[in-house]
Amino acid sequence: MTQAGWRLAAPDDFDEGDWAQIEDRGVLMGARLVHGDREFPVVVYDPVRIGQDAERGTEGGVVLYEANVIMVENLTRESAETAVAYLGNAGTFDWMLG
User: Fold this and answer.
1) Which of 20, 38, 59, 98 matches a 20 to 30 Å C-alpha distance to 5?
2) What is the pTM for the complete model shown?
């Protein structure tokens, strides 16, 4: 059964200027998936930035792990919030509610 009601919470003290920087950087860190009174960390990437981070993070045989990653084509506030709503409605996050 799909648990509706997921939303994206930006990092504390985040404002519109921060969103503009996030769009340029291609990564949103410190955000949270919220369902009721439960919160789970999430990172939202665009394809270019995740590729760069994966390449740097695995150099020299190092292993990279990133939990709860969402990728969107172009990272904006709207695309991140839309992705969370879409994935939440599809039941993608329901495993976290255990």
Assistant:
1) 20
2) 0.89
Both tokens assigned to 5: 């009601």
- Cβ proximity of 10 and 31 under 8 Å: yes
| CA gap 82, 70 in Å, rounded | 11
pLDDT single digits (tens) 17-53: 999 999 999 999 999 999 999 999 999 999 999 999 9
CB distance 70 to 42 below 8 Å: yes
3-30 CB burial, b ≥16 within 10 A, e <16: eeebebebeeeeeeeebeebbeebbbee
Distance between CA atoms of 46 and 36, rounded to whole angstroms?
A: 27
The tally of CA atoms less than 13 A away on the side-chain side of residue 59 is 6
Predicted confidence band of residue 2 (pLDDT cuts 50, 70, 90): low
Residue 19: HSE in the Cβ half-sphere, 13 Å Cα cutoff: 11
